[in-house]
Amino acid sequence: MSIDIGIIGLAKSGRTTIFNALTTGKADTGNPTSHVGIAKVPEPRLNTLADILHPKRVVPAEVRYIDIGASVKSLAEEKAPSDQFLGQISNVDTLINVVRAFTNESIPHPEGSLDVKRDIAAMNLELAFYDLAIIEKRLKRIEDSLKGAKPPERQTLLREQELLARIRSSLEKDIPVRELNLTKDEAKAIAGYQFLTAKPLLILVNIGEEQLPQSAPLEAELNSNFSRPKCRLISVCGKLEMELGQLENSAADELRADFGISESGLDRIIKVSYELLGLISFFTTVSGEVKAWSIKHGTEAVKAAGKIHSDMERGFIRAEVISHNDFVKCGSLGEARKKGLLRLEGKNYIVQDGDIINFLFNV
Ligand SMILES: Nc1nc2c(ncn2[C@@H]2O[C@H](COP(=O)(O)OP(=O)(O)O)[C@@H](O)[C@H]2O)c(=O)[nH]1
Ligand SMILES: [Mg+2]
Question: How confident is the model at residue 83, as a pLDDT?
Fold first, then answer.
């Protein structure tokens, strides 16, 4: 299971540019189809481990970015362009909405003028509209099914009808599904619908190079309007990040410094996406490979093992665990064992961010 991040936005907002930057890809920005690419998750602790252990291979975690070529609006309409787009957008774990803030006379804005707030609100509406269309269809079906339904099935249908009606009235009041405090059972009941407003949302304001000096106050101002639960907003210069991605690291750092950017915009995008998704990293160091893995905060050791291999989950015995900090202090697993810092944990141990784990299993 990989983490999938879907890139949406109005036309000419810079979606494909951002996609290229994130995946060091070379997708044609003039081509309105969807693009799929892989990016390595930046993780400084992985490099620290590599410096100590000198492994044969260093393997970062990966995420998949999908530049959804079609507009969300067209997907919500009856004559959807293709099932491929629908499948792609409904299966992503989180959404990035690219909003245009850069000016470029030769590339007209589809709405005729530049207005960041208007465009953010418009996309929020499109997402809600998409979910409402799904709800209407389902409610109609429930009504039909209720006509001939026997008691036990009837109860289930009525419960779902009530839940969907409640979600519909929230959406109509501009409250996305991700902000509803649904119970575990309710969340499970609607999981299959893959509502777009249920997914975490990163609003990515795509600024021009000349706006970089004002990016902090711009972000602060927009955040006071749009930051909500499971929704974050940051600004990035997509075009510059794409160019930086084509350079050697040292040249990129130099250029970034010239622009007064302290942190790579791409690193920030993935960091915030991870926070939105509640993801943490753990590490394995077996057979000459140091690897980083991403899991949801709160995952049990046995499930983390399953992330690596189903055999490890099935035959799980115990996990040898040490925190990244303790390991760095000790400098080797032998020393850590001597100091008693290598812990033996069972199936239900909740994996902590930065844990280095050796899974013991038999099959
Ligand atoms: N000046 C400037 N142009 C940009 C920026 N980001 C994208 N563009 C240009 O805007 C056009 C549309 O970008 P594209 O990524 O294809 O947008 P999409 O339609 O959302 O996929 C392209 O010609 C890009 O080079 C930016 O930050 N500054
Ligand atoms: Mg595009």
Answer: 67
Cβ 20 under 6 angstroms from ligand 1 = no
- Quote the pLDDT of residue 303: 96
Please name the residues in contact with 87: beta carbons below 8 A apart, sequence gap of 6 or more: none
Nearest to 65 by CA among 24, 6, 17: 6
Give, for ligand 1, the residue of 29, 205, 244 to mutate: max count of ligand atoms closer than 8 Å to Cβ: 29
Q: How far apart are CA 168 and CA 175, in angstroms?
A: 9
- Tracing tokens 């907003």 back to the chain, one arrives at 233
CA separation for the pair 6, 56 (Å, rounded): 33
For the chain (length 363 residues), average pLDDT per consecutive 10? Answer: 90 94 87 87 93 95 91 74 75 96 91 94 95 95 92 92 97 96 94 96 96 93 93 96 89 90 89 94 94 95 96 96 95 90 96 97 91
Q: What are phi and psi of 284, to 5 degrees?
A: -125, 150
- Cα 62 to middle of ligand 2, angstroms: 22
| Amino acid (one-letter) located at 213 | P
Q: Map residue 112 onto helix, strand or coil.
A: coil
Burial class (CB in 10 A: 0-12, 13-18, 19+), 182: middle
Atom of ligand 1 nearest to the CA of 9: 20
Q: What whole-number distance in Å separates Cα of residue 301 and Cα of residue 345?
A: 8
Best residue among 26, 66, 104 to mutate for probing ligand 1's pocket (most ligand atoms within 8 Å of CB) is 104
3-state helix, strand, coil in the chain (%, to 5): 50, 20, 30
Query: Which ligand sits nearest to residue 236's alpha carbon?
Result: 1
Sign of the CA dihedral with 135 first, then 138, 144, and 147 last: negative
What was the pLDDT predicted at 32? 75
Considering only CA atoms, give the Rg of the chain. 23
For residue 240, the CA-to-ligand 1 centroid distance in Å is 11
Which of 16, 17, 19, 99 to mutate to test ligand 1, by most ligand atoms within 8 A of the CB atom?
A: 17
